[in-house]
Structure formats: C-alpha cells, structure tokens
Please model this.
Amino acid sequence: MNDDNKLKGVFGCGLLMGLADAVPGVSGGTIALILGIYDKLLNFLAVCVSFFKAGFPKESRTDFFTALNFLIPLALGMFLSYYLVTKVLVGSDSSPGLLMDKETGPYIYSFFFGLVFISIREPWKFVTNPSNNNYFLVLSGAILVFIYTRYPIESTSNIFLVISGILALTAMLLPGVSGALVLLTLGLYDEIVGYVHNMEVVPLMYFFLGGFISLFTFVPFMNRMLNNHRELTMSILTGLMIGSLITLWPWKESYDKGSLPENLPLGQILDDFDFLSIFITVLAFLIGIFSSYGLKYFERRLRN
Model:
C-alpha cells in the first residue's frame, strides 16, 4: 500500500473510531483493537509524550514525525466522524437523533451489541494459556464497567470538566470502556456534544486539558503494561468488553437524552415492543456480528 493509500486507510480507521466513540457503550479502543492498530496507536502516543517530556531531542524527531504522520489523519477522521455521527444519533432537544428515539434506538444499540459481542475474542486470543489469574482479571474488568455505570454524577464546574476529560480520554483508549458512556454517567454527554456542535471553545479547553493530562499519565502506563504484561492486560480488556455489553443491551426503559437508562428484562420487551421492532433489532444484532468480518478485511488491507 503506497503512502497516500496508507493515509486514507488511517483516516478511515479514525472515521470508524469516531463513530464508535459517539455511541455510549462503544469504545474507539475496541475498534482500534479489531482493526489491529491498537498497539500502534498506544506506541505512537507514547512516542509523542516521551518527545515532549525529553524536551524535543533532535535524535527523536524522526520517530516523532512518523508518529504524527499516523496520529494526525487518525484524529481528523475521529473528529469529523464524531461531529457528524452525533448530529445524526444525538440530534437536538427539538429533534432527537436516532439513538434517542424509542423507534430507532434499539436498532443502533443492537448493531453495536453484536459487533462488540463477536469481537470479545480479539483481546482474548492473545491469552495463550489461560490461568485462574486471567479469568479473575476478566471478571474484574466486567465488574468494573458495571460499577461505574451504576453511580451517575452530575456537575458542570470547570474543574469537573477537566476531571471528565481525564476519565473520558482514558476510557476512549481502553477497549470495552466507552468515553461517551463515562460522560453519560457523569451527566455531561449532552453538554460535551453541544459544545462540539456549537464550537464553544472555553469549556472544550477545560475538557481537552483533562485529555492531555490523561495522555501524559495513562498512555505511558498502558504502553508498559502491553509490552511487559500483555496476557494479563488483554485479560482485563476482555472483561471490559464483556462488561460493556450491559450498557449496549438494545431494549431500555427510556432513550431520552441526559440519563443512563435502565435495561428492560426479557419479559417486559414483548409488552413494550411489537414483533416487527424486535425482529429488526435482532437483525441489526446479526448485521453487527457480520460487520466485524468487514472490519477484519479492512485490517488486512491496512497491513498490505
């Protein structure tokens, strides 16, 4: 693949990651893992962080610009996709998007439920000889996601925007932990989306400041974990992806903005949704499963 096609491929990865980051319960890190660029993403981020920490050394400039050649088109794709997708999925107060509508919300959630469900095997395949420690970490990861979705917090102070930026970017980089879901849990999902759509610079500066803090702390740590403890790290990531299925359950009590909705039990689904709606939701789940094979094909094209 020539340089132009590589840039287009990386930009395409960014589009897919931005799409995932726009949906509460789906992580851009999950898509990066499925596409086979997760290690490269963390490594290039770590290169940039090390370059700044070392005071811009000349001997590291080549590695730094190589990292930027990957990260810039990826980031542009992510931002463009996030902006457009949230317009469609979230919408506005007067015109709710597809994700916020009871008629279409189950289909969107179901598609991503299927995609994440079939993709749980991606991190787990790096665990060659599973032990009790690996299974314990899988369980711990799943429980962690469940816990942070149970305790929503609401605050809009500038300091809290910084804290939310730290948590959201860290979550976006972790497969199975959704940055959008973290913001929803914190009561800031609609506000951050509104800031992006309206280009409100000041609150976004506080939010991105938290993101930069996360880059300089979490990324080096995660990079070391992948290099030195890959199987244990992948076990945790597997658990995080399993836990995210709880939030992607298609049938919910409400699809309104500004809240983390409760899932409906199986018995209530037949009462609240008609047969055609349930059929299309199941179909969306199957499409999500098969789309994972399309992503793997895209991954192979990136490698060639």
The mean pLDDT is 83. The two ends are 6 Å apart (CA to CA). Residues 3-303 form one domain. The CA atoms of residues 10 and 290 lie 22 Å apart.
